[in-house]
Structure formats: structure tokens, C-alpha cells
């Protein structure tokens, strides 16, 4: 259970974000939209990012293996960090807080803050921008759709997604700096 002040902060933030969360979650009432965002969200579970990391050796040879290792290590740190934050901050998901928001896909875990899907999507997109920018026309829209899907599916608030994106970008930046220092 989070401390009382932390709970109150999230309750205020939940009320502030309520209208936008409801509007975006309403999009899931349309079957084609729901299908699209479920598929996009599933890609964000790991398949797209694992494929992208394993593609690096094909595109960059030996250097690509180093990139794949860097990306794997960065993803591991990201997973540990976001799980630590979720289990310490304990923000309930929108469909739990607001019964008018439907849960249209089973959540990966109990709490919503921050969005791990968005964190990884932005992290891998940032790493792609640094190493393989020619893939950005595919990867960037996918990351954006993954972020939006988490709110549309009723699994996250907008602030969960924003903070997840900021953490993902920060981890990618730190990872790239560290890789430059180690491999240069």
C-alpha cells in the first residue's frame, strides 16, 4: 500500500485526467479500432522489439551484435526499473478507478504507473534513431500507436504513458552514452 500522500496525489491526477482518459477509451467501443489497438499493443509486448534487436547484426555486422547486446541490457534495466516503480507507487488502472472505462484487454500486471509498453517502445525507437535511422518511418509510428493503445484499451492514464516515454528516452540516452564510453 502506498503512503497516504502518494495515494492522494494519484487520486487528484486521476480526476484531472478523467475526461481525456474516458474520451480515448471510448474509441475502443468501435470493433475495428479495438482490433487495431489490441494488435498494436500485443506487438509492444516484445515481438517487435526482439525482432528489431536481432535485426541489428544483419544490418551492421559485428557492430550490430554489440548493438543487440546493448539493447538487451538496456531492456533488462528498463524492465527492472518499471516493475520497481509500479510495485512501489501502486497506481490503480483506469478501469479500476472508473467503472465507466472498460478493460478491453487483460493487463500484464496490476498497476498502471508508468506504462512499461510505452517505456520500451520509446526506448527502442530512440536506440533505433541512433543506430538505424532508416527504420524510423516504421518504428516511430508503431511506438506512437503503442502509446495511444494503452490509453484506448483502458489500461493506462495519459500521464502513465508520458512518464513511460520520458523514462524510455532517458534510458536510451544513458545507454547510448555508456556504450560510447565502453566501445570507443
Lay out the secondary structure:
Blueprint: H1 4-26, H2 31-43, H3 47-60, H4 62-89, H5 94-97, H6 116-131, H7 136-152, H8 158-183
Question: Care to describe what's here?
Answer:
The chain has helices at about 5-25, 30-45, 45-60, 60-90, 95, 115-130, 135-150, 160-184. The protein has 8 helices and no strands. It is mainly α and about 180 residues long. The protein has one domain. Helix 6 (about 115-130) packs antiparallel against helix 7. The chain is globular and about 50 Å long.
Main attributes of the structure:
mainly alpha, 184 residues
In short:
By secondary structure, the chain is mostly helical. 77% of the residues lie in helices and 0% in strands. The mean pLDDT is 88.
DSSP strand tally: 0
Low-confidence stretches: none
Major β-sheet annotation: none
Percent of sequence in beta strands: under 5%
User: What value does the Rg take, in angstroms?
Assistant: 17 Å
Count up the domains: 1
Output the helix-strand order.
Answer: HHHHHHHH
